[in-house]
């Protein structure tokens, strides 16, 4: 919750030295102190009875800004570990089956990552050349919980400043359950790319994380996300002919990928050089599109955790009862299981038309 020892002591009506001694294991904690802390923080007493998730340190992958304090990074890690603990317990109790993903090994080049993205599509039952209508559901059908998270007592604006971007992934060993989480849905195209990026970590890095430069890991996950969302064969068709911003906007509407990510995808595949890439980014900035792109893509909503809660607690599940049983703060419990009633329809999967074909047919795009 981001509280100091002094703040927690004051809220619970105990002394700060007592909190310090308990935290260091120098003094046992009494039932009275636990009751006071639970009441002061809104935490169920069952929280103190569960073991924290045993995740190896190098399997919780997220980018941290250089300015992020150790305290805030610890908050993110603790929040994700709690979510992972609960998700894995629910998966075990409700017998959720997990799909085996391809796993990378050794040194990878761009072609290797493209192939692994194709293999991942095949493992998830996604057509080799089609639009992925719902990225989150594709992961969840494979037994990978995708969960939205909040930092307790946060106004919602601080999480991404700590994480460095909006996604976090974690796994236990090379064969254990994995999880993807995000701290801010943002635009749908960004959320879809974030989910695919974290899926990339699950495929590329369980065997290769140790000793791998973090920047290299992020670069690989970015390449994977682009290849997963827009396979090379379709990208070659889509990027035929000269590429202007209006053409990238057409592709965004079709594939649910941001204009910026599409520019990077075209660069990765050699359809534009670095100078053209920089020019397009300058044009984006001049139009104010770096932070507010045209063509809306609706955010996706996860359903797996809520479905597991429904199996265990009935429909609609009592989230307060679930929080008590699972030893999780009610605010976190609600964030893990959003109401999906308003989830928009997935992207349509119309036939692919290359940009060259669009020009020949006289197709026009009006960007609003």
The proportion of strand residues reads under 5%
N- and C-termini, Cα separation? 42 Å
Q: Which ranges are low-confidence, i.e. pLDDT below 50, for 5 or more consecutive residues?
A: 349-368
Number of strands: 4
- The coarse overall form would be elongated
Specify the number of helices: 17
The tally of structural domains comes to 2
Summarize the biggest pleated sheet: 4 strands, mixed
Along the chain, the helix and strand elements come as HHHEHHHEHEEHHHHHHHHHH
Determine Rg (CA atoms, Å).
22 Å
> What portion of residues is helical?
40-55%
Strand order of the largest sheet: 1-3-4-2
Class from helix and strand fractions: mainly alpha
If you average the pLDDT, what whole number results?
Answer: 86
